[in-house]
Amino acid sequence: MSKMFRVNGDRLWRRLNTMAAVGKTPNGGVCRLALTDIDKAGRDLFVEWCEAAGCSVAVDQIGNIFARRPGKNNELSPVLTGSHLDSQPTGGRFDGVYGVLAGLEVIETLNDLGIETESPLEVVVWTNEEGARFRPAMAGSGVFAGVFELHETLKISDSQGLGLGEELARIGYAGEAPATAMPIKAAIEAHIEQGPILEESGTDIGVVVGVQGVKWFMLTLTGVEVHAGPTPMELRRDPVLGAVRILEKLYGLVSLRKPWGRITFGCIETSPGVFNTVPHQVKISIDIRHPVQDELEELCLSLQTIITELTASLGLQGHLEELWDSPAVRFDPDCINAVRQAAIAQGYSVKEIVSGAGHDSVYLSRVAPTSMIFIPCEKGISHNEAENVSKEAAVNGCNVLLNAMLKLA
């Protein structure tokens, strides 16, 4: 790759801000929950832009959108990029959408320069990456990679009882293309970091070498429901006390595996949930992560031991249900090198990084050589209306994506 090319940064930034108006929230974020009318509006706008750029557009049975720019030899497998357009209920303007529109900008830049690649290029929008409306997360890429079964995924319902398949059809994105993996030469996803490491270190580009393993559990602690006044503390079988003791132990467990161990208790619910009654039950969600699979497995075994020992000592019943398992991922060396070389050739500072968040590339890496590009985000804030990146960072990452894809295609 003797010559470095650069994208049209003004066009990329303009498109990002135009898409940010689709589902804009009062505090400057976005709410584009998967398969809502707002998500449809974002999808429609993306398809319109892709068709204007000369791409053919196909939609598969799980609603993934593929925009293809032909190559010199269309019998070759494509080089793929893209991400997602759906958001959290109070999400930011760049999570997911940056990777989608960076991919579109690559295609438009190549059109401007009159460059024809040997292999075709494709930009993908994956369905329901966030999992905010339909669980599990990363449903579209998961079906594509064979992790989830299509018909079972289409039957998933949201909190209102509306089915994923029904909503796909309602908004016009229940496609006909098979929702199965096609041959892919290479795939690169550009994304905001969603953490503080790049900004704190003053680094331009994160060369993502892998993704942390994640396990989700639901812990249910059951005791005895009694009146808050007459029952002495020492005679209670209080599941809240169990929760306090267990959470303290689990925080300590993960702190021994710095800097990569992670544990989060995002949802805690007591039942019956009234002021003057000792609850009979507490439910706690557990999100546990580590980039080394063996370390993750050891953490989970220790977690189970802690729960068993403490519930027995407090006279409680404990039930730990595993809800999700996403093993640690190591990305393809050739794709990682393509990103690294493109960044260095542009004069950007680089840092190898492991993603702490899940991405569609996790599942895609099971069926295609894959890597990711991270750009710094302000204060590491994401899944938040305050999420922000600089125009410079967005353009830098897109320049790396352009040149890495050219090398691979």
Task: Walk me through the topology.
Blueprint: H1 9-20, H2 37-52, E1 56-59, E2 65-69, E3 79-84, H3 97-113, E4 121-126, H4 139-144, H5 150-154, H6 164-170, E5 186-192, H7 197-201, E6 205-211, E7 213-222, E8 226-227, H8 239-255, E9 262-264, E10 268-271, E11 277-278, E12 281-290, H9 293-313, E13 317-326, E14 329-330, H10 333-345, E15 350-355, H11 360-364, E16 370-375, H12 391-408
Parallel strand pairs: 3-4, 3-5, 5-16, 6-15
Antiparallel strand pairs: 1-2, 2-4, 6-14, 6-16, 7-12, 7-13, 8-11, 9-12, 10-12
Spans where pLDDT lies below 50 across 5 or more residues: none
Shape descriptor:
globular
Q: What number is the mean pLDDT?
A: 97
Determine the number of helices (DSSP H or I, runs of at least 4 residues). Answer: 12
The count of DSSP E runs of length 2 or more, i.e. the number of strands, is: 16
* Fraction of helical residues: 25-40%
The main sheet comes to: 9 strands, mixed
Q: What is the CA-CA span between the terminal residues?
A: 11 Å
Name the beta content range: 15-25%
Question: From the alpha-carbon coordinates, what is the Rg to the nearest angstrom?
Answer: 23 Å
Polypeptide structure, described:
Strand 3, helix 3 (97-113) and strand 4 (121-126) form a beta-alpha-beta unit. Helix content is 35%, strand content 22%. Strands 1, 2, 3, 4, 5, 6, 14, 15 and 16 form a 9-stranded mixed β-sheet that branches. Strands 7, 9, 10, 12 and 13 form a 5-stranded antiparallel β-sheet that branches. A two-stranded antiparallel ribbon has the order 8-11. The model has no long low-confidence stretch (mean pLDDT 97). The longest helix is centred in the last third of the chain and has 21 residues, at 293-313. It starts with 8 loop residues before the first helix and ends with a helix. The chain contains 12 helices and 16 strands. With 409 residues, the protein is α+β, with helices and mostly antiparallel strands.
